[in-house]
Design goal:
Elements lengths: L1 H5 L19 E6 H6 L1 E2 L9 H8 L3 H6 L2 E7 L2 E4 L3 H8 L8 E7 L4 H30 L15 H9 L13 H7 L1 H9 L9 H13 L5 H7 L5 E2 L2 E2 L1 H15 L5 H20 L6 E4 L2 E4 L11 H11 L9
Length: 328
């Protein structure tokens, strides 16, 4: 890797780009030929796509101007792209007419680790923002106006993935969930949940995903999530009702600072589904007993156990008629 980092981009073309005195990135106009000759960042793997080509070819006015905005860095004497790889490829092979110049923001990493971290930080941010923009666009397309703090900003990528696939973590070979289709698919469930005015503190990813699953299968039983929002859990003789079980679990996750761990949210989802079922089927006046030969349990001494999430995800996918759709 060291040899790669010592390579120079086209020295005859590259201007002498110097770091700013305060460490901020430099912003300057570059000949497009300079940008296309800059090295691709070693972390970059994706190539030009037909979708990019069609989008850029038909752009005009202000949109065309945005394509001139690129981000790079100068490291080990060479100019590297942090973004704009696809555009450079399309300009270079003539698929899309190149502008005369690009407006470049250039960073100056001080170590090899920072060189790699710059790429990861830039793409983590841009990817998250583009996914969020996609959800907001889908809200508008579906005339979906949400009012709750938790839902209206569209922070639902992981909840959609968990509700549709039973897990947040996805393999690199998997197609990401189509967020526009997911919004359309869960439109009714989002509206039902929004009526409960869910808070961000309680409705972590796992709880929102559980709500999407449960309200898909049992659309007439939203009372459980209303009680969660209002924190109306109950305790009796050292036992917890289903609402209190979830509130207790969420509080534990917040206290331990583990909310950002995917496996924790997956487990929270499975336990919340179990709590929902206990609340729906149970009777607060029955501790444990058989009614019509069916075990009805409402009160719990220990932490509630999770359901087999895959079973319920399959039910959701069948009900939504997407059982075989790979992008969902």
């Amino acid at each position: 890797m060291a040899n790669l980092l010592r390579k120079k981009s086209n020295i005859d073309l590259m201007p002498d780009i110097q770091p700013t005195s305060n460490g901020a990135p430099a912003t300057l106009e570059l000949q497009t030929s300079v940008w296309t000759s800059a090295w691709d960042h070693p972390s970059h793997t994706a190539g030009p796509t037909d979708q990019h080509w069609a989008f850029m070819k038909n752009a005009s006015g202000s949109l065309r101007e945005t394509f001139r905005q690129v981000v790079g860095c100068k490291w080990a004497g060479a100019l590297y792209k942090l973004d704009g790889h696809v555009r450079a490829g399309l300009w270079r092979n003539g698929s899309v007419t190149a502008p005369a110049t690009v407006r470049a923001t250039i960073y100056f990493p001080e170590s090899e680790r920072e060189f790699y971290d710059l790429y990861r930080a830039h793409h983590a941010t841009s990817s998250a923002l583009s996914r969020l923009d996609e959800i907001q666009a889908a809200f508008r397309e579906n005339e979906l106006s949400l009012n709750s703090r938790r839902l209206k900003h569209g922070l639902l990528v992981q909840a959609f993935t968990l509700a549709l696939r039973g897990r947040i973590r996805t393999a690199s070979s998997e197609t990401p969930v189509n967020l526009r289709k997911a919004v359309s698919l869960f439109r009714d469930e989002l509206l039902l949940l929004d009526e409960a005015m869910p808070s961000a503190e309680i409705f972590q990813t796992g709880v929102v995903a559980a709500a999407l699953i449960c309200l898909t299968i049992y659309p007439k039983d939203s009372g459980f999530f209303e009680k969660l929002t209002q924190e109306k859990g109950n305790k009796r003789d050292g036992l917890m009702d289903p609402v209190e079980c979830v509130l207790n679990l969420v509080e534990k996750i917040r206290y331990q600072g583990t909310a950002s761990i995917d496996a924790v949210q997956e487990d929270l989802c499975a336990r919340t589904v179990r709590a929902f079922l206990a609340h729906m089927r149970g009777d607060p006046e029955i501790f444990e007993g058989r009614v019509n030969n069916t075990m009805k349990r409402y009160w719990f001494k220990r932490m509630i156990q999770g359901v087999d999430l895959d079973t319920y995800v399959k039910r959701v996918r069948r009900k939504k008629k997407i059982a075989d759709e790979s992008d969902m």
